[in-house]
Amino acid sequence: TANPSKICGTGRSPKNYFYGLAMRTVTALHKVLIVRYSVDKFYRTYVSDKDD
Tens of pLDDT along 12-47? Predict the structure, then answer.
């Protein structure tokens, strides 16, 4: 049986909706930061190895 609040998306209160929205935003930002950190780390390692 599916959860009605999941189908509706908003749930009972706007508080739950905003909480879900915030969690999705934080998760997306977290993924972006991880990718940027990995790319930056790889780039710095590559450049420093090339310079040395």
Answer: 688 888 999 999 999 999 999 999 999 999 999 888
How many residues comprise the chain? 52
Task: Specify burial of residue 36 (Cβ count, 10 A radius: 0-12, 13-18, 19+).
Answer: exposed
35 in Cβ contact with 44 (< 8 Å) = no
Full-model pTM: 0.49
CA 19 → CA 26, 31, 35, 43, 50, distances in Å?
10, 18, 24, 36, 46
